[in-house]
Amino acid sequence: MSVAETFGVYVHWPFCLSKCPYCDFNSHVRHVGVDEERYVRAFAREIATTADRIGARTVSTIFLGGGTPSLMKPETVAAILDAIGKHWSVASDVEVTLEANPTSVEATRFRGYRAAGVNRVSLGVQALDDAALKELGRLHSVSEALAAVDIARTAFERYSFDLIYARPGQTPAAWRSELARAISAAAEHLSLYQLTIEPDTPFAALHSAGKLVTPNDETARALYDVTQEVASAHGLPAYEISNHARPGAECRHNLVYWRYHEYAGIGPGAHGRLIVDGERRATATERRPESWIMRVEASGDGLVSDETLTRVEQADEFLLMGLRLSEGIDLQRYEALGGRALDAARIASLRTEGFVESTSAGRLRVTPAGFPILDAVVADLAA
Ligand SMILES: C[S@@+](CC[C@H](N)C(=O)[O-])C[C@H]1O[C@@H](n2cnc3c(N)ncnc32)[C@H](O)[C@@H]1O
Ligand code: SF4
Q1: pLDDT tens for each residue of 336-355
Q2: Rounded to the nearest 10 degrees, how much is the dihedral formed by the CA atoms of 85, 246, 187, 125?
Q3: Cα dihedral across residues 219, 143, 95, 89: positive or negative
Q4: Is 286 within 8 Å of 268 (Cβ atoms)?
Q5: Which ligand is nearest to the CA of 166?
Q6: Which of the listed residues 17, 22, 27 should we mutate to test ligand 2's pocket, taking the one with most ligand atoms within 8 A of CB?
Q7: What tens digit of pLDDT does each residue of 244-272 get?
Q8: HSE on the CB side for 45, CA within 13 Å?
Q9: 287 alpha-carbon distance from chain centroid
Q10: Alpha carbon nearest to ligand 2 atom 7, residue
Q11: Which ligand 2 atom lies nearest to the CA of residue 126?
């Protein structure tokens, strides 16, 4: 599929049953209930407005992310997918992923999501350790999560789950056995995230008060190394810094971002990269659900930012996203986007240090030694 033909649609469901203390995603708890029909109408309206603006496309991937999309009724998911299909054509092999929390209540809806058109589920398992799940503020137990994985396996062609590692007190030996157990429940894809202390979260407050101690750099590096070793040994190599898959089973929607293709962001706090009249535009919508819905009802979309990216900005974004991938970036595309080549001297010096390598096909990629310091490598190349 060519670059021009690859188009993804991201839809954000911004509600959760409770707020996890480490999370800074755009997620909100509403005890009064959520009017799903009203949200469906607003999603459909924003989809229509976006389609009017960019014109015909063939949707290759759809991702319902959150928040907790598995709190939606299957009818809500079906209506959102219908709205996408009404305004764009949809590829026959479209990948439709829904993010789900692995509680028993949510797992009962999996078959309904499948009937609505979802063909891939991504479960937020987070840990296979009940004490760690409690510390992370999760509402499920290990056995409940594994039962949800079993249901996902029977309901969907494809499923993945997320784990968070580098948790307080976690040793490389404990993580090794937890990961091996996780892989025995996994099929083709796993997302393995290092715990990040995000500003303005309860974890950030505990961390700065010394009440939550995360692994030091040396242990974090050992945990990262264990992750790569165990996952690769089981046929799930990293294709992106935190994502592992059997070759061919990568999340195609996330590849749309990392390969810097076009995508629409629908719903509160969603980001998009749209090609409008030949220009690449960066869009973002209002984050607060109630404000987003009022904007959509008043004007057809929830946009709060909509800017043309300069060529240099596009090349920088392409670099930032593409170097997360083990396949790296096409240097010619970098040059075509930005109108200038990457600095050969900087590449040469990073290559000498063993942090990047060039392939015969004209690609530049970060080496296993470079991935733990990816941010520094990107900053050096983009400078
Ligand atoms: C949009 S979130 C969550 C989806 C779903 N609501 C859930 O919690 O299961 C996607 C993933 O990001 C990861 N994540 C969120 N905050 C994180 C943090 N501070 N550090 C590392 N991983 C994080 C979690 O693994 C989570 O499953
Ligand atoms: S981690 Fe998931 S369930 Fe927890 S607050 Fe964030 S989006 Fe919601």
Answers
A1: 999 999 999 999 999 999 99
A2: -80
A3: negative
A4: yes
A5: 1
A6: 27
A7: 999 999 999 999 999 999 999 999 999 99
A8: 18
A9: 17
A10: 67
A11: 1
